Automatic annotation (TrEMBL), chain A:
This is 18S rRNA (guanine-N(7))-methyltransferase. The keyword Cytoplasm applies. Signal peptide: none annotated. The keyword Transferase applies. Belongs to the class I-like SAM-binding methyltransferase superfamily. BUD23/WBSCR22 family. InterPro entries: Bud23-like, Methyltransf_11, SAM-dependent_MTases_sf. Keywords: Cytoplasm, Methyltransferase, Nucleus, S-adenosyl-L-methionine, Transferase. Gene3D superfamilies: Vaccinia Virus protein VP39 (3.40.50.150). GO terms for molecular function: rRNA (guanine) methyltransferase activity. It comes from Daphnia magna. It is found in: Cytoplasm; Nucleus.
From TrEMBL, chain B:
This is Multifunctional methyltransferase subunit TRM112-like protein. The gene is EOG090X0LTV. CDD domains: Trm112-like. It comes from Daphnia magna. One of its GO terms (molecular function) is protein heterodimerization activity. GO terms for biological process: rRNA (guanine-N7)-methylation; tRNA methylation. InterPro entries: Trm112 (IPR039127), Trm112-like (IPR005651). Belongs to the TRM112 family. It comes from the Eukaryota. Transmembrane segments: none annotated. It is found in: Cytoplasm, Perinuclear region; Nucleus, Nucleoplasm. Signal peptide: none annotated.
Amino acid sequence: MSGRPEHQAPPEIFYGEDEARKYTRNTRMMEIQLVMSERAVELLCLPENQPCHIIDLGCGSGLSGETLTEQGHVWTGVDISSAMLGVAKEREVEGDLLLGDLGQGLPFRAGAFDGAISISALQWLCNADQKSHNPAKRLYTFFSSLYGCLSRGSRAVFQFYPENSSQVELITSQAMKAGFTGGLVVDYPNSTKAKKFFLCLMTGGQQPLPTALGVDSREDAPNCVTFSQK
Amino acid sequence: MKLLTHNILTSKCLKGVTVGYPLGIVAKEVKVNEVEFNPEFISRMIQKVDWPALCKAAENLGHLDNLPPAVVDDYENNEEFLKKAHHFLMEIEVINGDLICPETGRKFPVTDGIPNMLANEDEV
């Protein structure tokens, strides 16, 4: 299936001025992003009624950041597209913005954040956009720096669009190598349209994964991932 | 870039950098905003903040006035202290300038409030 954005160009090229503007004018797409952001924050399992310091990874034009602000949190966003960050600035989002490449590692002090969210960004890290890029190495550099800048016991939740099961394997293996525990939560696993993947990573040692939405009530319905080979 | 963000930023993703903290600031444009005061958030952030680095940053910006030189005891219940901390962490913003790696001197430009932390391929 052609048409996956990350096969067309590196993210900072794909999300140039035109696309960046389109992204924040498409109301249906904004609605989807909003719902996914709210779900991601829910999966973060932050302490109730406590304003937290969150990092938004691949923050783009600030759509997901606005959900964080709405819920009373203070956030910082990192993105590789200056066009998207420009749109975020125009929209006057509350969070501080940084221009950066997740695959180069996160430039933050130990324990700086109480949590991390990422909406529709992680799949971009699986591409080798330059000859020198080694996706596995970049993923490991990213995850180990993320592990370091999260305070103990905090979580990172990534909504993303895996291309296939080996991509999921690549991502989760590098995350585990970096010290995270956790796994994939698949909401609405039986619906092609509604199915959403959330990688839930934890720093505090193995804990039960949150329950997925829309799973069958059959006794033996799996709450873990099964992939159709497409 | 607020001073809270500067307080947690490092250049340690660069090859050959050990600590990379704190980053020096040379600011060409600084803005002071009004941000809603959230005492609970500030109280929790003070545990993470490197206070000497905050003082150094405020000094670099020429905005040192009024910043307490150290965290006071029982700060959680000291509204005046929390308000001052809030002002420096959340209301002072670097709009244009450079952040400087303390080990290599490498500059990270700040443009329109956004630090550019992108490293060249041969730097990581």
